[in-house]
Specification:
With about 160 residues, this protein is of the alpha+beta class. The chain has 5 helices and 7 strands; from the N terminus they run ααβββαβαβββα. Helix 3 runs antiparallel to helix 5.
Length: about 160
């Protein structure tokens, strides 16, 4: 269920950013096993939180505690349901949960060409680092680290 939404989200958001062949054919081979291992493997400090619309998955966030940092590994909302506050609510809930576990900062990586995501995070008070080349699921991309020196700032922005 989470892998399916993650795949749908990437196919929509990255259709003009990532290779078409990867999005059409290779993505299942990467994300299916990733989520199977993440959800059934050794437990990590953090949370995977889902939002439902009736009986359908509307969105999810996966955030892990890395020392005193809340690292948001994934935040995805079903295409067609974006801009309804689901992502903001999920992110705020995850940040609050990880603050309760002792985190004081937060960060995530976003593909630099995903301008909509960057605008969203900037609207929540994020600071954005310079672009850097990284690899994600076998794809070389230009990413930007998005971060909040105070997780309290992120939580307050998500609550607005």
């Amino acid at each position: 269920m989470i892998a399916d939404l993650h795949i749908a989200s990437w196919r929509d958001a990255y259709r003009d950013i990532l290779p078409a062949d990867f999005l059409a054919n290779g993505i299942e081979a990467e994300l299916g096993p990733h989520w199977a291992a993440t959800l059934s493997g050794r437990r990590r400090a953090g949370a995977v939180i889902v939002a439902m619309a009736g009986r359908h998955l509307a969105g999810f966030v996966a955030a892990w505690r890395d020392g005193v940092n809340c690292h948001v590994d994934n935040l995805h909302v079903r295409p067609g349901m974006r801009n309804a506050g689901i992502g903001r609510a999920l992110l705020g809930f995850a940040a609050q949960r990880l603050q309760d576990q002792g985190t004081v900062t937060a960060d995530l990586w976003v593909i630099a060409a995903n301008q909509g995501a960057l605008r969203f995070y900037l609207s929540l008070g994020a600071e954005v680092d310079a672009p850097t080349q990284r690899e994600t699921f076998g794809q070389v991309v230009i990413d930007r680290r998005v971060h909040w020196p105070s997780i309290t700032t992120l939580i307050a922005a998500c609550a607005r």
